[in-house]
Structure prediction request, 312 residues.
Amino acid sequence: MRAQGVHSVGFVPRASDPAERYREALICLDAGDEVTARRAVEEGLAHAWDPAAAPVRTCLDDLGAQLDGEAALRRFAARTPGPRGWLARPDDLARHVLALGRAHLVEAVVEEIALVLPPPVMVRLVGRLASAGTPGTHDLLAAVAAVVPGAPGAAARDAWHGARPHSPPARALAFPRLAAAWSCGAHGARGQDQVILAVARDGGRVAPLVALVEHHDLGALLRDAFFLPDMVPGRLEREVLHPLAAAGMPAVPVDVADALDLACAALSGSQAVGHRIPSEAHQSVICRIRRLQAACAGSHGHAPPGGPSGVG
Prediction:
């Protein structure tokens, strides 16, 4: 899922420079033109053979992999057999969901399945995943345990037993960890902060939470917040931090636990006064922030058995 208003670049003429092609791909994505964005990524990679272009190549590679994952998500949505098929063939469901390859895509699919299925049916699906007993169904149980609230999530946690998932995306969801955070004052808006909180993901990527916090005498309010797709740190710098600095809002590193506490307190303040989070219309922002709060508040996150970081 892409949030609006992130990239603030203008039109870039076609050129062989990989950095220009990268910027062109971002412009096309903001405009909803994934075909031209994919072409720009491929052309940029074709010209990124110089060692000096290695940082841009890493970003282009990651952006291309994101496009591949989003295309796989659309194929999954078009071809999935639906609830009856999921219950009849839980191992196929696990294989197809985990094959999406990115934690944010696995998370989105698990959220959607939990919305489609009534809680008693979701509990039945958890039981079918547990009975299948394959490494894939075990890993999908871990993702369900991390993402789904209520009785289905509790049933998944009981069936999963907390063992380390084999799938990197499932492992990142099951053992979230805060990687870094920044804060910057919104240009010309007194009493506002823009907070960026990077959640560690598989493969060294991060899932950036971007939150606009407004400060008042009685506390903080969360005006809006959204999660960006999982990305390598170089993309976070180029697509979020550098544009903010160019707009006169340089981002200053802050403590990750403090940043999470502020976002959660601001969310509570907004809920107390009945303020709607605009991005909630297309992303489960509130639930995701609350899951982070439950897993990571007061610490930098949890490490899985057999590994120090929970990602990789």
